[in-house]
Amino acid sequence: MIEIKNISKTFKNNKVLDGIDLTINQGDVVAIIGPSGTGKSTFLRCVDRLEKPETGTITIDGETQDLAHIHGKDLTELRKKTGMVFQNFNLFSKKTALQNVMEGLIVVKKMKKEEAERIARKQLKNVGLLDHANHYPRHMSGGQQQRVAIARALAMEPKLLLLDEPTSALDPELVGEVLDTIKKAANEHKSNLCRDTDQSDDACIRSGRTCKESKKT
User: Which UniProt keywords are given for this protein, alphabetically ordered (predicted)?
Assistant: First the structure.
């Protein structure tokens, strides 16, 4: 179980997040749904500490970290437990799909190249892209790039997978393949937190649950 408590964040005089709590059980897919400007991306970025909140804690497997003051080794260890997938993929353009998935395993987890490649190939197979292992991002569709990004995140074996509008940059006909990948990850007992602004994408949570935000701050 993952518990996120009392997340608060202010930009200038605008209180974007005010004491937000969320509990995620193993295998949950949670969709945070609401209009632009309600702090959904900011919440995810605070959880992964890409943004520094004024207050907030995260507890993973019974270990609690203060997100407002975490740094150094503790921050590195937290990020080993969380994976972030961005709406614009953020793949390395000069690396192949395989190299993109291997990168974190080698740089962050200090794995040997052979072991990193084995895991990367397994994750690419899981998202249906093993035959694209040697393709560069420019030779893949948006849906394929997003699936590589998900494979890259899952290769790190995160306890919590954060997805920031994972389908918003895709053509409508490519959305289904990414949503199916998210569902598969949840079925394999990963905890997933899915952020989505479009009510029509409720399908992405399937048997999960929603946290709705309807009022701009």
Answer: ATP-binding, Cell membrane, Hydrolase, Membrane, Nucleotide-binding, Transport
